[in-house]
């Protein structure tokens, strides 16, 4: 049974691979298709909150980010960093 989710693999000019989860817009890359897919699995899990620890105000300050400038609730980015029409 298919879930209907799609992952796109792109071989770049330098021989590296990009993997893009079409549903979430999350992308990653690697030196091989396998590595790109492994990195994408981790990135999607982080994106969905299935892995990693939540960011704290202290973490943000350590990165030089004002915690008051970050929304409390997750939201979609204003514009995708990757245009799937290209």
TrEMBL record:
**UniProt xrefs under InterPro entries:** DUF7387, TTHA1013/TTHA0281-like
Residues of the region (Disordered) are 50-86
* One protein family per Pfam: DUF7387
> SUPFAM superfamilies, per this entry?
TTHA1013/TTHA0281-like (SSF143100)
The protein in question is named Type II toxin-antitoxin system HicB family antitoxin
Q: Which organism does this record belong to?
A: Haloplanus rubicundus
């Amino acid at each position: 049974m298919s879930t209907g989710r799609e992952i796109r693999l792109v071989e770049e000019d330098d021989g590296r691979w990009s993997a893009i989860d079409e549903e979430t817009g999350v992308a990653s890359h690697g030196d091989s298709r396998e590595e790109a897919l492994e990195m994408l699995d981790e990135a999607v899990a982080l994106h969905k909150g299935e892995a990693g620890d939540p960011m704290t105000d202290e973490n943000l300050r350590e990165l030089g980010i004002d915690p008051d400038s970050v929304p409390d609730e997750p939201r979609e980015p204003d514009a995708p960093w990757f245009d799937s029409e290209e």
